Amino acid sequence: LIDLTSEEIPHPTRRDIRRHDRRSERMTKTLATPPVHRPLWQRLLLRRLKFLAIIAVLAIVLLGGSYLVAPQWLMQADDWRKAAQAHVEKHQLTAGDTTWSYYEGGDGPVLVLLHGFDADKTLWLDVATQLTAHFHVIIPDLPGWGESTRIEGASYNVDVQAQRLQAFVEAKGLKGFVLVGHSMGGAIAGVYAAEHPEHVAGLALLDALGLKFKENAFAREALTGSNPFVYDDRAGFEKVLSLVFTKPPSVPGRFIDVLVDRNKHDRAYLQKTFIELRDPSQSLAIQNRLDQLTMPVLGLWCLNDKVIDISAQDSLRKGLAHARSISTTTLIGCDHMPMLEKPEETARVLANFTLSH
Q1: Which residue among 9, 219, 227, 303 is least enclosed by CB atoms within 10 Å?
Q2: Whole-prediction pTM value?
Q3: Would strands 177-182 and 200-206 be described as parallel, antiparallel, or unpaired?
Q4: Distances in Å between the alpha carbon of 141 and those of 8, 13, 123, 228, 249?
């Protein structure tokens, strides 16, 4: 026999009944509440925000990957951005032995801007941004530099470059323009203006090679055969920046790596051209032609230029015997790169010079 003992089930208390009633009431309200339907515009906005968030994440990933793997793409994109901001477009033109790459844009009196040694047309974009509202600017990559062609074994000294510039001017049909040159580009501009005064309405020389100046550390190093503009690593690049800038800009490390590789790739050309420019016929190219300059001339120098000492400005002023007018401007707070360290001031001086002649 099995003894089955029934377990007594306790009766619910009043507290249990009230608790059960409250739970039932909450459940009934929840079931009775209709689902919330957002307005159409809110749903579309949320979808758009989600989409933009995904795009932003992808962009960050792509930019980070590009910086590490292909930083030159980001550098090119920044050049495109600056060119668009300056309202200039890139063109190509074959003249003489060179296919020239150049920026052009803006309306008004024509200014042709020439860059210096181991540089290219992008050097002038910050200044062009200030000028194109009132002037027509043309900014070429000089032959052998940037995206313009380079012929193996050919000479790219000041005299030959001035001849190539004449081919470009003729191909473009330019007349009565203001010619602006910086550093090596200043020497080329000065020689061109002396030999083709009929084309040049005004000559602006910015920290220009080609004039006598007090010997400085840069000149002494150059005379020993050393080229301060070649470098093999980030430290060497930073040393060049400290030479040409009063306050060297901060350049991302991977961007520096691209510039180091480019400098190494162009080493033979850089060395050959630098040796050519050391010759007195080149380093004094403007000095030897000062009495041939008949157009208005502007000399703009940075007070603290450690490459071409500001005493060159005195040589310019004293040697111009036949220029219709002579203007000189000294900028404070910059070194050898006024168009980068003082773009607004540089543009303003160039604009005033152009409009006054």
Answers
A1: 9
A2: 0.82
A3: parallel
A4: 102, 96, 10, 22, 23
